[in-house]
Model the fold of this input.
Amino acid sequence: MTRPTPTESPEIALLREVTTAVARGRDVAKLLEDVIDILEKRLGMLRGTVTLLEGDELHIVASARILNAEERALGRYRIGEGITGLVAKTGRTVVVPDVRRDPRFLNRTRTRRNTDAVSFVCVPLVHHGQVVGTLSADRDIRPGARPLAGDVALLEIVANAAAEAAAACRRQRAERDALEGENRRLRALLGDNPGNLVGNCPAMKQVYEQIRLVAPSDATVLVRGPSGTGKELVARAIQSLSPRQDKPFIVLNCAALPEALVESELFGHERGAFTDARDRRIGRAEAADGGTLFLDEIGDLPLPLQVKLLRFLQDRTFSRVGSSEERRSDVRILAATSRNLEDMMSRGLFREDLYYRINIFPIALPPLSTRGDDVLLLARHFLARLSAKYGKTVDRISPPAADILLAHPWPGNVRELENCIERAVLTAQDDCIHTYNLPPALRDAAPAEDPAAPGAPLTLAAQLAAHERQILSSALRRHNGNRSAAGRELGVTPRMMTYRLAKAGLS
Done:
């Protein structure tokens, strides 16, 4: 605690200490506790308490002593209830000369005895014209004690200085509560997702059902979808639910190798089969014997090798490069492609007989841009994993950042989202992803386009409607779905709030 200069009054010293704590404070909850501590040491105030308004209720967030779970649960006041609720409702300070003689004093936390001779003062915390909470304290009224009345104005000044920190604490708590509630809901929804797949949109639910249907069999599956949608995860989910789950899962990316090496990678080669073939090597088809072979980007397979793959699919026999010996491999084939195989067949780039051989059970993965709130579900999944990977404690996404994630078209699909969250985690300075942690390409997005006419900008009315929906959605998220509290924040009557939510499709 700083000491007053010889020419500085105790009141000025107190205000200087409070403003210094507010200016330097990073942890807002700790900052509010520091303010209470200063009041106790400088003014002799007892049982200082800060409450914050959350929806229609005031909750204790800081106090002079550590409250247990029961005391915190009891220390809640509805608007207008008791002295604390009255101050939050009217925005005016209330002074109780003797708590023993005022029936409005509720003593919810039971920290005072009925015989305690104390006065009580409660002042509002006002931020941008709105009451966000209260600051209250006791003062001993026994003979010789400093009278409370002379310090009320000083306490109001302290409350004004601390109101910004209180509002920041209120926002953080609202975001955390909303995130915890959403996480509970999402964990319940994710309970039956196969493998490591994340998502709950109707298209993904259909994918999950298809996986469960086909996994127990040995049928060949073709997983289709744009690049970055998670086709390999689908293949691994199928293998994990199949009778071959404890057997090898071997991957060959047909687009990642030069054409001359694809056959060797798939079927293996004998020593001396070609230049640099110094030793015999088994291929992926042989390594996967008894298990599953996943051919990723099968649309990039060269035409000559398509013929040999077709033969392997028909009878599971093959020959290593440089050998005429026929070998067998008991494998299940899963394939994936981001190409339009039908168009490739029409241009003679993909064999029709191979197409019908691999297209026994197709599964189509939707692009991320069509999956709605799955974007945030995936973002938080990646956030948890990457925070642990980099040893950080980033566990929240701010509402403005969430709005940007939802608005982005994600041409790179889930892979692009994962890279975006990884960058955000690396640049995060606290426990929250903010808009400035997102890549510039997301923050500086191009003007919205009309989905019914790609390339055409949205009309003014459509852009205004989209912007209003975003504002309403953000307000609801900040208040954990409480439309009354969201309406009060936006200055909208309950009737008009109901109408606007219905119009925006958020009812």
Q: What stands out?
A: Residues 446-457 have pLDDT under 50 and may be disordered. Residues 37 and 64 are 7 Å apart (CA to CA). The first strand starts at residue 46 and ends at 54. DSSP finds 19 helices and 17 strands in the chain.
